């Protein structure tokens, strides 16, 4: 035996040894896994059947009883029919004799499988055979008046089979039947055995044939569940690899911790809610009779002009089912006593949630079997009411006259007629309510549910007050002015006959205060939450901050303008900022960045269908950026990139007499924009205030921001990007030339999970504002009294109107005696007073007749005055020169580390604080400092620093003495002398910013000059 042979034999032995070792290891691992397994898939399956049988009263059937050709258990079907409808069955048996069962099964099959047919419709409405109505299920009666119906409801038969052969190649873990008809299929996986719901989804997509009778769309199972021990997913339509599964999970955690998935329990499985709740008889019948429906969508093919019809079988997601059931339970107990805030993120299926709620509220009875609401009014702040909502409601129940949509062709008189009539559901716009406050009579005996679609700030002002006044049940009053005002106040608050249900993804503090519920910690919060965090984690919306890039713009202003003292006024600064915004070089540089980023990074997304939105700062900007965009595309010879523009009204550019409109630039009417943008002709939409909210375009992948965005406006604007675009794995991109990533992240924080309100508008805050207005000396109490007598008179003649105008003119002239900035502050204080007082009326039973009279007068005065700055005759046109523009790329943010900051506060009417106007002025100065110095001072930090300096100055005895003994002009000499001492005192905490102020007299006077007047007034009046 030579050496080579010895080596070969040795290698062979080694290979056999290795193979045997591998087998032993695999066998050992298998045994170990088997022994270590807590639960097998088969044991899980048996456990589920046991729960359904013992806890829920299901009948466990053998799989051999399944008729795969009709997806039916014949024995259970005919037991139900014979038990519940014996007379009908006896009648039909005489006609069809031994063929009766086959005839009925074949007829049901024909009705469910025809083009416009479905199992859900057959279950809801039954079938008709030889002029005999055959019911296939019985729903729960709305009242207990009919014991026969209650008995038949209890005779519905629920049964379950395991290991069901749907075809020769398809064996299903569990199938659930209602009265013998297959309604649900389950593929179960056990995490303890090394598999999850994802394996079940894979099984449905790859091993289940959509043409198999059990899975046939609309005719087979209503829903198919992929379920393990931790999570549940569902689909209503099997479509091979394209099958789309939705999560059917409770959500994990509460409030700020809420996210995707299910909670972990010590003593039961995370998915136990399925057999404890969802798979109970009552819930299944509720789902079938009140929730599941066929959604029909029709779309006109632009090339052929033919209408394309598509259908979806809608099954509620868990949070939709949960919110409807919880609201109904609360209303059943409390009647019309409460308002409800529903904070549901974009991607929550809000349209269907509103449709389900409206439909259920129309037939909701209390414990005494009395109907709770006479009418359900759906209010939207969009100009045209969503037709999709009407289709969803009609899809749930085909009843003539059930719903009426008050579209843009309807006038307020039509709405008044509908409210007085018998239409159960009325959909309208909020704009129509103010016109019918005084015209709708005899509504105090009716009870209303008002569902507000996308509740925003418009719901906290006069429009919302008009709703409660129209529908409210205030008592009849005498003609006395005092009584009439008191009654008006009562009607403005929460009415005993009206409950409001406000849906929004981004509730403002006023919305939370108006509709929120008090929690155990004394905070106001939403009644029900489906958070942005959960929606992102569940894949219904995208995290729009996942690819966020900052750009900064630097420039240099010519020395002549910088040194001109007339250019240091606020008006001049605004002109300079406007000049920079519209500067050709600045625009050209930004357009190059935008186009090249879109061309190289974005446009190939979504199979080449990706689109982008450019958020411009003004209508003039929109026009100039559109021109620059088209010029750059033409110069580069790029193909496949074209832009549309969106803005309202007409626009003229500097040094250009031509008038521009959206339609003239786009080449088609405004109402065609959304359809045109959806085509492959256009990729980019440049907007100025339009389409920043409520615009739903799933193909939007990128946003280029050229405008300051704050708070809820930032969230709503960037959320235009968050729609998923199946079947593509969509990515989003944000290039921001104005805002910082931290600012945008802070804007999202309150809405990321749940939003809580920690404070409230109080009467004392409103009285503080009243005192501020009184201090201006512009309101004569006698004039207020006389004006209110006129306002509440039965008939107002011409002389009285002239007299009312005289009172307003008198106050206006008193305001104009003040210098311009004081005039602006006075108007701002009056607006705050009106806003806060209106809000207080709606959230409380506050009543002060004298204050209400003042509110009436101030409201009319604000409408009457129109203060304009005299301008000083100085014009910067043609005098500003800006050079050395640089667009500097900042940090790329690739993963959005959003952290919830749920507690919000109402804007408080502080007696002494930084007003909105002053904060805006300070913000403009800081923006200018950042642009000119290349710094990046945070506006919030600077504001806090300035308030700190103000407080230091407020404690100065020297300044207090000066304020008492001097005019404000003389006071400012000592004021600015003391600023350096105050800056040094705060230097350790704010070193960089304070150092800049210490070394720059001009900036120092600009920033801290903001406070000189209020410190003077406060110290002069100090005791």
TrEMBL record:
Molecular function per GO: ATP binding; DNA binding; type I site-specific deoxyribonuclease activity
Keyword Oxidoreductase: no
Domain Helicase ATP-binding: 312-530
Domain of life: Bacteria
Keywords, in A-Z order: Endonuclease, Hydrolase, Nuclease
Protein name, UniProt field: Type I restriction endonuclease subunit R
Species of the source: Simiaoa sunii
PANTHER family from the UniProt entry: HELICASE SUPERFAMILY 1 AND 2 DOMAIN-CONTAINING PROTEIN (PTHR42927)
The UniProt record lists the keyword Transport: no
SMART domains: DEXDc
């Amino acid at each position: 035996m030579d050496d080579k042979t010895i080596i070969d034999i040795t290698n062979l032995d080694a290979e056999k040894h290795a193979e045997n070792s591998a087998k032993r290891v695999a066998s050992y691992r298998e045994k170990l896994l088997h022994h270590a397994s807590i639960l097998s898939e088969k044991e899980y399956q048996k456990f589920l059947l046991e729960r359904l049988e013992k806890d829920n009263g299901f009948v466990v059937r053998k799989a051999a009883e399944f008729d795969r050709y009709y997806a039916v258990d014949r024995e259970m079907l005919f037991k139900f029919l014979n038990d519940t409808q014996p007379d009908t069955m006896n009648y039909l048996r005489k006609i069809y004799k031994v063929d009766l069962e086959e005839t009925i099964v074949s007829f049901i099959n024909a009705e469910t499988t025809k083009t416009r047919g479905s199992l859900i419709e057959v279950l809801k409405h039954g079938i008709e055979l030889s002029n005999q109505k055959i019911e296939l299920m019985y729903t729960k009666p709305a009242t207990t008046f009919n014991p026969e119906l209650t008995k038949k409801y209890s005779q519905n038969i629920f049964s379950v089979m395991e290991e069901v052969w749907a075809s020769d190649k398809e064996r299903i873990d569990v199938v659930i039947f209602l009265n013998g008809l297959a309604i649900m299929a389950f593929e179960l996986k056990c995490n303890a055995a090394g598999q999850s719901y994802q394996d079940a989804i894979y099984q449905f997509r790859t091993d289940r044939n959509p043409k198999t009778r059990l899975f046939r769309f609309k005719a087979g199972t209503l829903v198919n569940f992929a379920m393990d021990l931790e999570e549940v997913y569902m689909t209503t339509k099997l479509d091979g690899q394209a099958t789309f599964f939705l999560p059917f999970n409770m959500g994990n955690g509460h409030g700020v911790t809420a996210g995707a998935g299910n909670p972990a329990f010590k003593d039961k499985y995370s998915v136990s809610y399925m057999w404890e709740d969802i798979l109970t008889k009552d819930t299944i019948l509720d789902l079938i009779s009140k929730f599941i429906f066929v959604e029909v969508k029709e779309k006109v093919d632009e090339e052929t002009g033919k209408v394309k019809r598509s259908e979806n079988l809608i099954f509620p997601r868990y949070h939709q089912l949960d919110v409807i059931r919880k609201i109904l339970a609360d209303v059943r107990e409390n009647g019309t006593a409460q308002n409800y805030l529903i904070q549901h993120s974009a991607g929550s299926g809000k349209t269907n949630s509103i449709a389900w709620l409206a439909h259920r509220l129309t037939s909701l009875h209390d414990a005494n079997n009395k109907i709770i609401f006479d009418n359900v009014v759906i209010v939207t702040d969009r100009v045209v009411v969503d037709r999709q909502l009407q289709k969803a409601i009609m899809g749930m129940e085909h009843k003539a006259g059930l719903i009426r949509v008050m579209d843009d062709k309807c006038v307020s008189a039509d709405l008044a007629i509908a409210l007085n009539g018998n239409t159960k559901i009325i959909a309208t716009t909020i704009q129509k309510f103010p016109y019918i406050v005084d015209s709708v009579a005899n509504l105090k005996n009716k009870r209303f549910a008002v569902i507000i679609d996308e509740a925003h700030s418009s719901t906290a002002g006069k429009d919302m007050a008009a709703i409660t006044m129209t529908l409210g049940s205030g008592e009849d009053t005498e003609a006395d002015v005092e009584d009439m005002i008191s009654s008006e106040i009562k009607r403005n608050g929460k009415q005993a006959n009206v409950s409001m249900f406000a849906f929004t993804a981004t509730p403002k503090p006023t919305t939370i205060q108006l509709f929120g519920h008090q929690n155990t910690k004394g905070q106001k919060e939403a009644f029900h939450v489906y958070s942005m965090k959960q929606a992102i984690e569940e894949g219904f919306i995208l995290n729009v901050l996942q690819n966020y890039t900052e750009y900064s713009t630097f420039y240099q202003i010519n020395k002549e303008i910088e040194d001109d003292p007339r250019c240091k006024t606020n008006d001049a600064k605004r002109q300079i900022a406007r000049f920079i915004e519209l500067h050709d070089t600045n625009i050209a540089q930004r357009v190059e960045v935008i186009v090249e980023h879109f061309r190289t990074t974005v446009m190939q997304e979504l199979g080449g269908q990706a689109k982008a939105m450019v958020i411009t700062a003004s209508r003039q900007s929109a026009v100039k950026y559109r021109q620059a965009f088209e010029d750059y595309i033409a110069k580069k010879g790029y193909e496949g990139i074209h832009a549309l523009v969106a803005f309202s009204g007409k626009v003229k550019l500097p040094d250009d007499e031509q008038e521009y409109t959206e339609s003239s630039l786009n080449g088609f009417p405004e109402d065609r924009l959304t359809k045109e943008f959806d085509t492959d002709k256009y990729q980019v939409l440049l907007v100025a205030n339009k389409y920043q909210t409520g615009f739903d375009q799933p193909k939007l992948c990128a946003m280029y921001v050229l405008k300051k965005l704050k708070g809820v406006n930032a969230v709503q604007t960037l959320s235009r990007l968050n729609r998923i675009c199946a079947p593509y794995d969509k990515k989003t991109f944000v290039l921001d030339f104005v805002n910082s990533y931290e600012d945008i992240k802070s804007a999202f924080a309150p809405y990321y999970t749940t939003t809580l309100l920690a404070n409230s508008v109080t009467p004392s805050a409103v009285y503080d504002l009243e005192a501020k207005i009184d201090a201006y000396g512009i309101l004569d109490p006698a004039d207020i009294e006389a004006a209110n007598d006129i306002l509440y008179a039965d008939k107002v003649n011409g002389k009285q109107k002239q007299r009312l105008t005289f009172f307003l003119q008198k106050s206006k002239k008193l305001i104009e005696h003040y210098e311009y900035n004081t005039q602006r502050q006075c108007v701002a204080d009056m607006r705050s007073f009106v806003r806060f007082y209106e809000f207080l009326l709606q959230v409380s039973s506050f009543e002060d007749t004298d204050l209400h009279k003042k509110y009436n007068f101030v409201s009319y005065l604000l409408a009457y005055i129109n203060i304009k700055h005299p301008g000083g005759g100085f014009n910067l046109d043609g005098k500003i020169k800006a050079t050395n523009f640089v667009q500097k790329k900042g940090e790329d943010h690739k993963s959005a580390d959003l952290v919830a900051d749920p507690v919000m506060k109402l804007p408080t009417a502080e007696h002494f604080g930084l007003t909105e106007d002053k904060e805006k002025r300070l913000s403009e100065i800081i923006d200018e400092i950042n642009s000119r110095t290349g710094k990046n001072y945070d506006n919030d930090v600077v504001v806090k620093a300035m308030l700190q300096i103000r407080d230091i100055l407020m404690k100065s005895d020297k300044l207090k003495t000066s304020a008492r003994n001097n005019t404000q002009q003389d006071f400012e000499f000592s004021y600015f002398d003391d600023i350096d001492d105050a800056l040094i005192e705060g230097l350790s905490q704010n070193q960089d910013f304070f150092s800049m102020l210490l070394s720059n007299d001009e900036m120092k006077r600009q920033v801290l000059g903001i406070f000189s007047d209020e410190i003077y007034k406060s110290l002069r009046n100090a005791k």
